[in-house]
Design a protein that fits this description.
It contains nine helices and nine strands. It is of the alpha/beta class. It has one domain: Vaccinia Virus protein VP39 (Rossmann fold). Helix 1 packs across helix 2, helix 3 packs across helix 4 and helix 8 runs parallel beside helix 9. The longest helix is centred in the N-terminal third of the chain and has 16 residues. It is globular and about 55 Å long. The two termini are 32 Å apart.
Length: 285
């Protein structure tokens, strides 16, 4: 985890429950006597995330509809911090591709660094909820929720086209692409994971709607499309970036980046036992 991540040493659940008392109802006592929560329970994870946003980032009234993805805050903070290493902290403008109903990256970018953020979304229900959520959320006095602009992607065949407007300039784009290639793949992975955890009847611990979890071709094809389309916006974006969950997807993506004559690098990212990486690239101008 990033050295500047507030959550690299874990959570103070008692402190968090003072900010968000509903978290207490999800407390469990482990065999060693320590208090924890059931991380396979989506409601418990949602309560934890709400408490983290309120206590550490001053974000009030964050919520999610039932069955939507509740993103783990520490790993989302890590992405933001790595971007700051890449582009700096002040006077930054970024684009979050597929911001979702949770709108978490624009919220964190604004709450931590006061960045100006655009969040794009292709799903109508997620976009509508994010718009409503923006009206409810409050930030610390030095931060402005109005720094976030939400845009609906009307063309499902495009990622950046129709979102990045002529003459606009961005320091970065960011993306957490759908992981799975199909609903069946997501279901089987869910079964394996829950079996290993001893909860064979449970749903995915972070829940999630179909468009949040899978897309045609999965992560590899989505990012390949993004790389190809990024060439059309090379004069308007400093760094293009995307999370890559599967290490085996990197060779084909690197091949594409070399073919398009980009400068790129791969940044390792670890959160608990989960290993990921951040793929970043730019065009030499």
């Amino acid at each position: 985890m990033h050295d500047n991540n507030l959550h690299k040493h874990g959570y103070d659940l008692l402190l968090l429950s003072e900010s968000f008392p509903a978290l207490k109802s999800h407390f469990i006592t482990k065999e060693d006597g320590h208090i924890s929560i059931d991380f396979t329970d989506p409601d418990a994870v949602l309560a934890l995330n709400t408490a983290l946003l309120k206590e550490h980032y001053g974000v009030q009234n964050w919520e999610l509809p039932v069955d939507y993805l509740s993103p783990p805050i520490p790993s989302r903070v890590d992405y933001i911090l790595h971007l700051a290493d890449l582009v700096g902290e002040k006077n930054i403008t970024g684009l979050d591709i597929g911001t979702g109903a949770n709108m978490i990256y624009p919220i964190l970018g604004t709450a931590i660094f006061n960045w100006k953020m655009v969040g794009s979304e292709v799903d109508e229900d997620s976009y509508a909820f994010a718009k409503a959520l923006q009206e409810k959320i409050s930030m610390p006095k030095s931060r402005k929720i109005s720094n976030i602009a939400l845009r609906f992607q009307e063309d499902r065949g495009s990622i950046l086209k129709g979102i990045i407007k002529p003459q606009e300039l961005y320091d970065f784009t960011m993306c957490n692409p759908p992981f799975y290639a199909s609903e069946e793949e997501a279901r089987k992975a869910n079964q394996r994971k829950n079996k290993n955890l001893g909860y064979e009847s449970r749903n995915r611990n972070f829940a999630g709607k179909s468009h949040e979890l899978w897309c045609n071709g999965g992560e590899a094809l989505f990012v390949k499309r993004l790389i190809k389309e990024s060439a059309d916006f090379q004069s308007q974006v400093g760094w293009f970036t995307s999370l890559i969950s599967r290490k085996e997807n990197l060779p084909k993506l690197e091949k594409q980046l070399k073919k398009m004559k980009t400068t790129y690098k791969i940044i390792p990212m670890n959160s608990g036992n989960k290993k990921s990486r951040l793929l970043v690239w730019k065009f030499d101008r």
